[in-house]
Amino acid sequence: MASPFDELKFRDPERARALSGALAREVEAAGRTISLMHVCGSHEQAIARFGLRAAFPRNLDVIMGPGCPVCVTDTPEVDEAVALAAQGARVCTYGDMLRLPGNSKSLADAQSDGGNVEVVYSVSQAVDLARQRPAEQVVFFASGFETTAVATAAVLLSGVPENFSVLSAHKYVPAAMDVVSEMKETNIEGFIAAGHAATITGWGIFEPFAARTRTPVVVAGFEPLDVLAAVLELVRLVRARRPEVMNCYPRCVSKEGNGPALEKLWKVFDVVGGNWRGIARVPRGNLELRSEWDHVNARRRFRIDTAAVGGASRNVLAEHCICGTIMSGLAKPSDCTLFGKECRPDAPVGACMVSSEGSCKIWHVYGGPPDLREVA
Amino acid sequence: MCLGVPGKVLSISDDGMSAQVDFFGVQKELRLDIVDVPVTVGDYVLNHVGFAIRRIPPEEVGETLALFDQILKEAAAGDLMAEDVRGEMAAGKGGGESGRG
What we know:
The complex is a heterodimer of chains A (376) and B (101). Chain A is an alpha/beta fold. Chain A has 16 helices and eleven strands. Chain A folds into two domains: 10-312, Rossmann fold (3-Layer(aba) Sandwich), CATH 3.40.50; 316-366, no CATH class. In chain A, the strands form two sheets. Chain A has a six-stranded mixed β-sheet with strand order 4-3-5-6-11-10, with helices on both faces. A five-stranded parallel β-sheet of chain A has the order 2-1-7-8-9. In chain A, α2 runs parallel beside α15 and α6 (146-157) crosses α11. The model of chain B is unreliable at 96-101 (pLDDT under 50).
C-alpha cells in the first residue's frame, strides 16, 4: 500500500499545466483584464510560495484583500491592550499581535516597559495562566476571524476563573467583503473565500453576499491545484455573469458548516461596526462579546486609559505606510516606498509587514509577482 | 491562522472533553468542544488554536496529511506557511515531542 505521503495529487505538474492553459484561454476570451480578490493570508502564502502568479495569464490580477486579522486590528484596539498591560494586567495574545503597532506603542514595547505580556498559542493557555495566578487580572487580547473566535467562545462557555477576561479584536470576514466590493475603484469581479475558515461557517454564508453584490464567490483550498482550479472556476463564473457560490474545497467544506461551533460563536459574540485598520469603518465587521458576557469583557471590567499610552509623538514613517490601500486591493506591496527598505519584518512600520499572513511580509519572504511573464 | 493542521487521535479523556493527538510526531492535548462530529481513537482531526474543528473524513486523510507533511519537509527556516503550521501544532497542551516520524 502506498504511504499517504505519496498522494500528492494536488501538486501534479501535468494537471497544473492543463489548468494554467485553460485559465489563459478563458481570460483571453474575456478580452479584458479580470481582477479577483482572495481574503486569506494562507492563500497569499500558497500563491507566493508556489509561484502561482507565474501560471496566471497577464490579464488576470489576483489580489489579496483584508485577509489578515492581525493586519486589520485597529490602532486603538492595540492601545487598549497596551494600556491594560501598563495598568498592571497580564495580557495574553497570539504571537503575531506582539509587534503590531499601536498609536505609539506595541505590546512588545509594553513588555520592555515592564508590562506582563505573554504569547499564547491557544486561548486555553491564557485561561490556565489565570488559574495559576489567581491574584492577577489576566486579559486575553483576542484576534482572528470567526473561525478563531469560536475557540474564544468555547472557553467562555465552559467556564473561566473570575480573574480572566477577554479584550476582543475578533473580526468577521463576510462584512469586509461587502465593504471592499462597494469600493468602485477596486473593480473586483470575484472573490476567493478561505477553505478552513469556511469549515466552520460553511459556504452557504456567502450566498446572500453573492446575490446582493452580483459577485461570484469560490471557496478554495491551499494546494497549488486547489488554487488554480478555484481561480479557473471563478473566471468562468465572472465571464458567464453568474453571481453564484461554488465550493471547490468539498473535502473540507460543507454548505452548512460546523453547526455546534456556530451555535457557540453566536451565543457569545455579536457583530458590531468597527474600524478596520487603514481600510474603513466596517458595519458588522467586529465580533464583540454580547452584553450577557459583560462580566468577562475587559472593556466593561476595566477603565482602560488609552490616553496615557497614546503619546503625542508623530510617527513620520507611518504616515507613508499604505497598508490600508494594499488591503483594499488598490495597491501592491511593491508600490509602497517603505517596502523592504524602512519597513522590513525585523522593523515593521505597517501592520502588513508584521504578521505571517500580511501581504507585505509574504511578498518580502517569497518575492512578489515574478517578472518572467513580462519578458515572454 | 487560516490553516488547520491534521493530527491523529491517540486517546480521549474520560470526560470526553479533550483528546491526545499526534501531529507528525508531536503529541498535544486538544479540546473537543467544537468539533463537528464525535471523534474516536484513530480518527484524524483538524486543529485550530488548540481545538479540533473538524473530523477529517477517512477518505480524505491521505491527501490532507500529504499536503502538510510536504509543507513541513520542504520548508526552509523562515517559511511562513511552515511557521504557521508549527504554531498550530504548538497550540495544544503538553508536548511529548518524539521528533518527526
